[in-house]
Design a protein that fits this description.
This is Class A sortase. This protein is 34% helix and 25% strand. It is built from seven helices and eight strands; from the N terminus they run ααααββαββαββββα. β1 and β2 form a beta hairpin.
């Protein structure tokens, strides 16, 4: 009996070590897979954000407070995206942007907080209104050519059409300028008498900015927009 009692603690210690090393092994596998598929998981978190946008929700969100301090914007790493996906209540969507030729369809949200820019295109001034003066939007350029504002760099050219909607009206613009500018050139965000839409994203290096500027063409009631445009707005957002 004494020998059996002595062997029991030894077996328990041995089992505990086995459990420890097995757990450690599993954790290492999980961490390794996370590192390997970090980009894919991040892209999935972005693509899974598909908010429902209505006239009622837009009207409500237009009154919400937002951050317009671009100096506080961080690079789009995994933790930033995960935090944004967890805190979608802080994202106040006020419309959509559709660029069929560039394959861009994104929610537009108030401000340029990290949460907003991780999942949408963000408005850059608190006073801007679709179809009135300059309507600037910012968005991230990622390694994927299809997510957020990445297609601006790869696919957008002068002459293409830009559609904005607040769920009540559709505003049509034609791309008139495609230009690389210094990151310090903030004047492009200023209000103008001319009706414009100004889209800003990073260049390939991240040091400078790509500016896509569209000139106003016309506006119409949402229900009177071409069927192809309505279908575009009803389709899923392009973060895939």
């Amino acid at each position: 009996m004494a020998d059996n009692n002595k062997q029991a603690p030894k077996k328990q210690r041995k089992n505990r070590w086995r459990w420890f090393w097995s757990t450690l092994f599993v954790l290492l596998i999980v961490v390794s897979l996370g590192l390997i598929f970090n980009e894919q998981i991040k892209n999935w978190l972005i693509s899974s954000y598909q908010p429902k946008i209505t006239q009622k929700s837009v009207k409500k969100n237009e009154k919400k407070k937002a951050s317009f301090d671009f100096s506080k914007v961080k690079s789009l790493d995994f933790s930033t995206v995960a935090n944004a996906r967890w805190n979608t209540a802080d994202i106040h969507v006020v419309g959509e942007i559709l660029m069929p030729q560039s394959k861009i369809h994104l929610p537009i949200a108030r401000g340029v907080s990290n949460e907003v820019l991780a999942l949408t295109a963000g408005t850059m001034r608190p006073d801007q209104k679709m179809g009135e003066g300059n309507y600037p939007l910012a968005g991230h350029h990622m390694s994927s050519q299809t997510i957020l504002f990445s297609p601006l760099y790869w696919k957008t050219r002068v002459g293409q059409t830009i559609y904005l909607t607040n769920a009540k009206k559709v505003f049509v613009y034609k791309v008139s300028v495609r230009k690389f500018i210094p990151a310090t050139d903030v004047k492009v965000v200023d209000q103008t008498k001319k009706k414009l839409v100004t889209l800003i994203t990073c260049d390939a290096t991240g040091a400078n900015r790509l500016m896509i500027r569209g000139t106003y063409v016309k506006q119409m009631a949402y229900k009177n927009a071409p069927v192809s445009v309505q279908k575009g707005f009803h389709s899923g957002f392009n973060n895939k």
